[in-house]
Give the backbone structure.
Amino acid sequence: MRIETKCVQSGYTPGNGEPRQIPIVQSTTFKYATSEAMGRLFDLEDSGYFYSRLQNPTCDAVAAKICDLEGGTAAMLTSSGQSANFYAVFNIAGNGDHVVSSASIYGGTYNLFAVTMKRMGVDFTFISPDCTDAELEAAFRPNTKAVFGETIANPALTVFDIERFANAAHAHGVPLIVDNTFATPINCRPFEWGADIVTHSTTKYMDGHGAAVGGAIVDAGRFDWISHADKFPGMTTPDESYHGVTYAEKFGLGGAFITKCTVQLMRDFGSTPSPQSAFMLNLGLESLHVRMERHCENALKVAQYLEQHEKIAWVNYPGLASSPYHARAQKYMPKGTCGVVSFGVKGGREAASKFMQNLKIAAIETHVADARTCCLHPASTTHRQMNDAELVAAGVSGDLVRLSCGLESAEDLIEDIAQALAQI
Ligand SMILES: *Cc1c(COP(=O)(O)O)cnc(C)c1O
């Protein structure tokens, strides 16, 4: 099946007389005839449902669709993109370990890595996605367990050279984890370029309607944990909390990562999505391919309009021919990139803020990737504690406006921008 068909059909196939739409299994628990039958689930001898903190049929059906869209072997949903990235990294890196990460990533992920996971004893080295080969090589340590990057970074919109970072990770015997939130599998499938694990904030385009926070983790099933057994003892040595099961042996390369992540991390941290949220996510997925095309078309038209406007200082959109990331975007995302455009309004912080107040369609929100156009002025909101020098260091200039183009008419969006600029 082509990806458009997978968006609509994958993950759930009803039998005779069964509901056409994915049933919302709103149940915390599942009934068994004998304690022995249930005990086999606890020993991971049988697969089945017993408690929705670990697994739920509605969530699993939606995870299976995302797995198919990315071309993976196993997937799981989480309650947020934050928990997806935390689980994906913590599943293979713990106290005393090290991870190489692109410095150009979502602010929440940066905080998770640099502050919270550091408190858990995981060290991160942040490098530019455009670093030299020598800088990339120097970032690895003997205790490095993974490499991490975002296909298109939020909010910097840098494009990650997946193939190059995958080769570097594999040369050091570790997997590449790619957060594919902004591109979505419609525009880029990181597994086709060598990535081993993909994560998502499904809150963004996959949901697409600003309705439910969520996340997902998908495994390509290719990383050979057994060949690097010394680096990944959690995968290759017995887990005493499950009567000595060894994940890489019992579940194979295709299943080990997601099974371990579910039965250890979901069991212990419990960042599980509700079946209701998973159902809503699936409604979003059914139209993801149709929506992504329009998001990208609108963003390109808006970016081209802004680029020639005399009151605009600069425009950053990887779909623009003038973008330094254009060639890389063409390689990894020939169909389009994403609906988010960032730009500077001449006159700096004050002009940017006034411009946004004047917009009638685009609402001021911290959200992106919604059907409704929204915008954010980081300097006066998410980054307001920083002075001008600190903002520059963070790659967020005072004049920067982040505009997430929705599914409205591009002509209406451009007219709205035109009238808002005319007033400043
Ligand atoms: C929003 C976002 C996250 C965090 O996801 P939540 O669902 O808000 O927890 C992670 N990565 C990227 C690229 C994001 O845009």
The radius of gyration is 22 Å. Residues 80-82, 85, 106, 108-109, 150, 154, 179, 181-182, 201, 203-204, 213, 215 surround pyridoxal-5'-phosphate (CB under 6 Å). The chain is about 40% helix and 15% strand. The mean pLDDT is 95.
